[in-house]
Design goal:
alpha+beta; 7 helices; 27% helix; two-stranded antiparallel ribbon
Length: 256
């Protein structure tokens, strides 16, 4: 009777381990599922693909912590490994940390987050390039490391999300019609008259001449489709940064 050898072996090494770094320990077998992998597949929701609901998925996104079928894994690969790092639960070596993060996440938790963010049913590329999913992955990483769990993205992380979205869905946008200073006697948003202290500013998205209250300096983000890679000023009608408290009370509704 053939007996499987369950002794865990290190993958072939191509060089010396760096000081302070533990070697990667493969804990899946190419002959049969490791108990740790089977435990993940037995979790609630993990018996169906996160994206198409197909039965018995055996592919995983290591950073998203969710399980998917072979067909959907191809779409995840097309996103790029910075958005979804795809591996096979049966064919690839996975580390203890890999499985720990997937165990912490799982399809049920991912599904709940996507539902709350109204992302279910959206195209895969749009769904997993969203700010909500980026925050979710950071929260998983923090929980796994025992660190404080972030409740929102930093401004730098929001810009990174925006750049990823724009890179995947480039749009040709006509340059806005710029309102000359001499033609703007008052803010084109709130109608407040410009004075020595209430100065004119331009929204780089729509070109309107607006006041500081309607277009604070902090209300900025890049516009890659216009060739503006660095954050530039926007009026409150074109974008609302979560870092700005607008006087009309409508905050945190910026299009991420």
């Amino acid at each position: 009777t053939h007996t499987h050898n369950h002794t865990k072996q290190h993958p072939p090494s191509t060089g010396a381990t760096q000081p302070g770094m533990e070697p990667t320990v493969p804990i899946t077998s190419r002959d049969e599922l490791d108990p740790g992998v089977q435990e993940i597949l037995d979790q609630e929701g993990n018996n169906h693909c996160i994206d198409c609901d197909a039965l018995s998925p055996d592919w995983v996104s290591l950073n998203l912590g969710c399980i998917m079928c072979l067909r959907c894994s191809g779409q995840h690969r097309n996103l790029g490994s910075h958005l979804s790092k795809v591996r096979s639960l049966r064919l690839d070596y996975l580390t203890r940390d890999d499985l720990a993060l997937v165990r912490l996440g799982g399809n049920a938790r991912m599904h709940s987050m996507l539902s709350a963010a109204s992302l279910l049913g959206r195209p895969i590329a749009e769904r997993y390039a969203s700010a909500h999913v980026r925050l979710y992955t950071l929260q998983l990483e923090a929980e796994l490391a025992g660190l404080p769990v972030p409740q929102e993205l930093t401004e730098e992380q929001r810009i990174e999300v925006l750049q990823n979205q724009m890179a995947r869905a480039p749009k040709k946008v006509a340059k806005p019609e710029w309102t000359p200073d001499r033609d703007a006697k008052q803010c084109q948003d709130c109608s407040a008259a410009f004075t020595v202290t209430r100065r004119r500013h331009h929204c780089r998205r729509c070109g309107k001449c607006v006041c500081e209250a309607c277009a604070p300096k902090k209300n900025s983000r890049p516009i890659p489709e216009l060739g503006l890679q660095q954050p530039v000023r926007h009026c409150r009608n074109c974008y609302r940064s979560p870092a700005v408290a607008f006087k009309d009370g409508k905050n945190n509704v910026g299009k991420i």
